[in-house]
Design goal:
The chain is mainly alpha-helical. Helices cover about 95% and strands about 0% of the residues.
């Protein structure tokens, strides 16, 4: 495999991981936000 070909593969892999990470990360962050809100509510009462 040529060096430019390797770079292209890594770029595609990076974009793919970014896309997957974004799709997985969005529900996780909203879930974490909801969890922290619940924790704050319970700790205040």
């Amino acid at each position: 495999m040529t060096e430019s070909g390797q770079t292209a593969v890594f770029m595609n892999l990076g974009w793919f991981l970014l896309f997957v990470g974004f799709n997985i990360g969005q529900p996780i962050t909203s879930l974490a936000a909801r969890l922290s809100n619940k924790i704050q509510e319970t700790s205040f009462h």
